[in-house]
Amino acid sequence: MESIVEFVNGIIWSNALIFMCLGAGLWFTLRTRFMQIRGFAEMCRLTVRGQKSDAGVSSFQALAMSMAGRMGIGNIAGVATAIAYGGPGAIFWMWVMGFLGASTSYVESTLAQIYKTKDAEGRYRGGPAYYIEKAMGLKWYAATFAVATVIAAGFLLPGVQANAIADSAVNVLCTGADACASLGGAASMKLWIGIAVAALLGVIIFGGVKRIASFAEVIVPFMALGFILMAIVVMMLNASKVPTMFADIFSSAFGAHAAFGGI
Q: pLDDT tens digits, residue range 58-87?
């Protein structure tokens, strides 16, 4: 099984995918005339003043749900893995990919708005599977994408997140030999944490997109603020090393390992 996973992973995360992501981001950035810069002020205005909709969600709720999918394990473990593989220069390429990827995200979101549909209950449905079918006419590809998304978002990603939460809790609470004995040991504690996370997740997602949006607009701002504050605190505590940090990032950015690690 491990060899199969490594084989598939080698195909998916090949050099071709990396160049395609960079190329698509650069192409969309040029074609939209740097929309991520030109439209930044308008984005902020709509985020604050956007109205709620009975058939959909408000602009701020949409932003909160989008941010919820981008913050988490990837922001911590993913960045650490990139630096471990590519060195400090990988951070530069994460900046580049974040900038170019903003235009790709803009195009994806625009297509989702254009090709969204209303269901029988009057609520909007949309996303990549919809515009792949309606715009490209590739129904089989849309179905494949939808199935892959259900598997990834419904089973794989929550498992990674729940496991990270359980590991963190065990590392903090089970510091002594008998610290978790009353709970049945570390393995049992992980199981109960996983069950609790699954139950909480079920309460949220089975309420539909409205409940997800309502939950996200309350929780996500605190998550984002927490990330920013932690970064500021770390930089302040190591203020004397910040200039050296930036020097290392730029001086080691233009190597193959740095580029592939960051992207």
A: 778 878 877 777 776 667 777 877 888 788
Contact 234, 245 (CB under 8 A): no
What CA–CA distance (Å, rounded) separates 118 from 124?
4
| Contact yes or no for 83/261 (Cβ under 8 A) | yes
The 10s digit of each residue's pLDDT in 142-152 is 999 999 888 88
3-state secondary structure of 224: helix
DSSP alpha helix (H) spans, 87-183: 89-114, 128-136, 139-151, 157-173
- Comparing CA positions, the residue from 37, 44, 13, 46 lying closest to residue 103 is 37
How far apart (Å, rounded) are the C-alpha atoms in residues 257 and 263? 10
- Provide long-range contacts, Cβ within 8 A and 24+ apart, for 71-80: 71/220, 71/223, 71/224, 71/227, 72/161, 73/160, 73/161, 73/164, 75/227, 77/164
d(CA 77, CA 102): 21
Contacts 24+ apart (CB under 8 A), 118-121: 118/55
Contact 256, 83 (CB under 8 A): no
